[in-house]
Known about the structure:
Helices cover 38% and strands 32% of the residues. The mean pLDDT is 87. It is α+β, with helices and mostly antiparallel strands.
Amino acid sequence: MSLRKFPVTAPDGTEYRVKIEDIYGDGDIRALLHVKRKHFGFRKITGYWFERGKLADITEDGVIDYVALAQRFIGEYYAGLAYGAERAHLRADKELRKQAAVERFNAWDGKL
């Protein structure tokens, strides 16, 4: 089974293609997220395997709600982007504080 949907529009207006596949027929689902290329086709951004047991909250009578799955997948992608941005901000802040400490040390006259 393979499902594709384009466009799936995120809250920020970005359009994605979502591809959901049950490759092995065992209930484990692979979800892929693509963006449209400038000239031709799509470029994969990320992918994720959803194990059958972790889909219980969006499954009813053994049938997965694929809309809820796509929403969860894009939500997790955006949460990862936010986490990465926060980590980059913390690293940059730490580097600035480190540089300020080096400058204070270099400016120190050496007297105790």
